[in-house]
Amino acid sequence: MKQDAAYYENAYNPRLAVPDYLSHFERWRKKAKDARDALPGYLDVPFGPHPMQKLDLFRPKGESRALLMFIHGGYWRALDKADHSFVAAPLVERGVTVALINYALCPAVHVQDIVLQVLQGCAWLYRNGNNFGAPPGPLFVAGHSAGGHLTAMTLAAQWPRFSPDLPKKVVRAGLSLSGVYDVEPIMHTPSINVDVRYTLPEVERVRPAFMPPATDAPLYTAVGGKEQEGFHLQNQLIREKWKSVAKDDFPCPEDSHFTILDRFADPGSALFKGALKMMGM
Fold this sequence. Notes:
Oligomer: single chain
Helix content: 40-55%
Low-confidence stretches: none
Strand order of the largest sheet: 1-2-4-3-5-6-7-8
CATH topology: Rossmann fold
Distance between the termini: 45 Å
Radius of gyration: 17 Å
Number of helices: 13
């Protein structure tokens, strides 16, 4: 049954469900600045031709045990890697090299352009991560919200077709937090699609739930217990469609769409421990 715009807004617009969402952004920015001031690393490293294609890379104090690329959320139209540096702090303490990437935002570009930029980020890190002390070989990817969608797209990517010098498995595993895997509902969510501008042809090109995973690389997932119905439906969908590679689904019963990201950066949480488990740590 076709739903009206109000249904999609209530199911997919987290700013309606969390009226104080701006306080979360402010808190993230403060924590992120503290992390950048404290952590050794490299800021605004270019990885592609677009001016927004830059990454921040943070190195662990000792030998690196894994390389993780983090993709921020914001419904493909907002936020910045600099708002999310805090997710790197507990990971570098445990020996993980963390790269946070930026990408161009809607409406200046379309989501299919963002997908290609993110794939360029993966390819750059695969080729260059060991120059920054990371282990050579496939990397791990994690992302929140729109970044969760983009994480799934990296696992659906046919890498040798993207670039013939790349192997089939550029990404070893992915962790998607509150991701959107069938983006068609966003086309019917006016407050979001005004910027994202999805049309049916583009939806088909960036709809990972209806693409096969390209390798046996596992996908780990999480959704907050206090998130809207749409995000729970999306989580169920990708786990059903990708059951051959779907691994742990980490429970976050007390979390909203925004606080789940704090849980990811909390060393005592099951979600953080799950991220380490994904990386074999």
